[in-house]
Amino acid sequence: MALLETTVKNGKVQGIVSGNPEVSAFLGIPYAKAPAGKLRFRAPEPAEPWEGTRICNDFGYSCWQRDSGKNEAFREMVKNRPVPFRFLRMDEDCLSLNVWTPAETPEEKLPVMVWFYGGGLQGGTSDDTTFDGEGLCGHGVVLVSANYRTGVFGYFAADALEEENEYHACGNYGLLDQVAALRWVHENIGVFGGDPGNVTIFGCSGGGRSCQGLSCTPLTKGLVHHVIIHSAGGLNPNYSTPREKLKELGAKFIRFCGKETVEDLRELPAEELQAYYDEFSKDFDNWFNITDDGYALKYTMDEVVRRGEQQDLDYILSTTKNEIVRPVQKPVTLKEFPEIRFGGRTAIFKEVCDPETDEQANDYVVNAESYEMKSAQLAWARVQAGQDKKPVWLCTFDHPAPGNQYALHGADQMYAFHTLDKQYFEVPEEDEKLSQTEMLYWTNFAKHGDPNGEGLVRWTPFTKESPLTFVIDVPECGMQLREVPVIEKLTETYINWGR
To answer: Which of 271, 291, 363, 479 has its CA 20 to 30 A from that of 125?
Structure first.
């Protein structure tokens, strides 16, 4: 039986038996104070100690965000889930984390995996059945998942905020929440049987982008040893916003709210502030984002990697085959292509994508996000292959989830966590096997910084001599050389963008 009671620095905690009787779960442990009132738009402060034993049997509040649970179509869809969907419970007192452990004693020193959820840095929660840890922890790791601030609460920036702290920085509160969670892991995970000297961070989409930020900041040195980035990361100017541009956006948002100062925004009830941001952020260009604040990040993330100033860690960079497919009412033609907008990526796509046929024009529009993510990661892999650092492990998840013709953005998460049976469909035997295979690669990587192990198809890192991508699929995985002309063009553009 895994341990059910232990003591962290702030006090005693009592967990529960998870869905796997050999794994215990400690849910909703606070790692920082509520970032409310005067602490809104500030770096997190350590949580207060408590008296007695804290019963950790439920997730903490999710951070404020747009609530998809209010959408009737969404509510209808989740009725089909075999496991009840956990709808959002939001509050500013949201900085908590969860620990799943198979350890029977604190002395076991198991590898630790810390998950940061996706949501484009605009939302997301650790309180999601997709990320339950009883499956993954069955492979001999301790899992931590943490809530962090997103959207206006996590990345709002303004000149006035730079005057409030000794670092003269603003924005990146969500990133600093994640740093605080990792410091908590370093100080406390040993009592759950975890090894603070062997920590892997991983995340998808906005969580993957966060993992890149955490590997590009000096604030996590010694706290992180391996990194897995799903469907994000790489050399892409859209993955972080320059500081001055973000502050201009902050000033625009203050005016949008009909206010004059940062203090006016602090006085707004959280729900009202989120309602303003829901309307403001309908335009993709108005999203608050990770920034080069001068404290957590000296440069934008892509520039950090170009300069070779990212930490020299073990990295897996992973995408899905199709990522986000943009539906079109009718096929796009060559004539129509110049009028197409690609959101924040328009400038890059218009420079690089020069279709010669109607079929190419339509393909570029439908698969824009897939090409973007694959190119950005490939750019990182190529740049790092020329640096005096460990090579990255590059891969793509090509298997469509049951009932879908595409391997879509985020679909690989339920395979990595072995939570397929908590979704909307019956699980074929081949998908069950693929989930077990991916968990083995991921947990081997967490244990050794190398995904390979007994009984698995050999995966080699990406180098100049062997520029291959590892493909995760059925009936088997394997190394492939993938050369797609538009990805090649985009990759070179990302490597040199802005230079």
So the answer is: 291
